[in-house]
Amino acid sequence: MKSEAVLLGTGTSNGVPSLGITYPQSFLDDPRNHRTRCSVLLRGPEGNVLIDCAPEMRLQLLRANALTLDATIITHTHADHIMGMDDLRSYCIRTGEPMPVYTLPPYQDDIRRVFRYAFEDFPPGIFIPRFDLRDVPPVLEISGLRIETRVVPHGPVSSLAIRVNDFAYLTDISAIPDEIRPWLEGLDVLVLDAVRFRPHPNHLHFDAAMAEAERIGARMTYFTHLCDEYDHSVFEATLPPHIRLAYDGLSIAIGN
What percent of the chain has pLDDT over 90? Predict the structure, then answer.
């Protein structure tokens, strides 16, 4: 089996379409403009690894037919990246084991606080998620994949950048530190934060993402974490052929 990355969700923190907004029918008619919150499923030759647990995680994984999960990686603990974690209980029930969850130590504290019940004792017959919190290593070998991680800024906090072979995923970042630029060389596919058109203190906006995409020089770059300013079919037509807008369900082959 070849490895692939499935972009389960590609939207900004409030999702697209957003509540309380009236959209043109032409915008709503394009399914690529319906964006759930950001997450990725890495399908390896020996299993699956989930990156982040969006609020729509259950629906995302049902659509992807992800019957098993070997582990979860949490890039950071903002609500749009962890509020689906309760639904990991289904995998815990199936295996009878806690879900390995890899993240930075401060974010382990957040998970213990938000999902306190997942670490408490309950009588038999009460099914809750169980998380085996682990420090994320620079290299994680699991599911037949070699997953590399680096820490990048996300405004005043940190987030994890992820690379698997010639594929890299950098969502929720405000800058790319010079020290990790060599790590991003030789990419076939880059998935990069480009939240909106105006500058944002915690994210790359469109112009900054374009500049970084050209500097990194991946064969193909997909912009993700997109707000509703991006009308997919209209805006993508203005982009160069090596830069595209990501959309929910996009499957990307990962080379060996």
Answer: 96
- CA–CA distance, 202 with 181 (Å, rounded to integer): 19
- Cα of 189 vs its chain's centroid, Å: 15
Phi-psi group of 165: left, alpha or beta (phi > 0 → left; psi -120 to 50 → alpha; rest → beta): left
pLDDT tens digit sequence for 210-232: 999 999 999 999 999 999 999 99
DSSP states of 160-226 = EEEEETTEEEE-S-S---GGGTGGGTT-SEEEEE---SS--SSS--HHHHHHHHHHH--SEEEEESB
CATH of 3-254, one of 3.20.20.80, 3.60.15.10, 1.10.3860.10, 1.20.120.80: 3.60.15.10
Amino acid symbol at 79: A
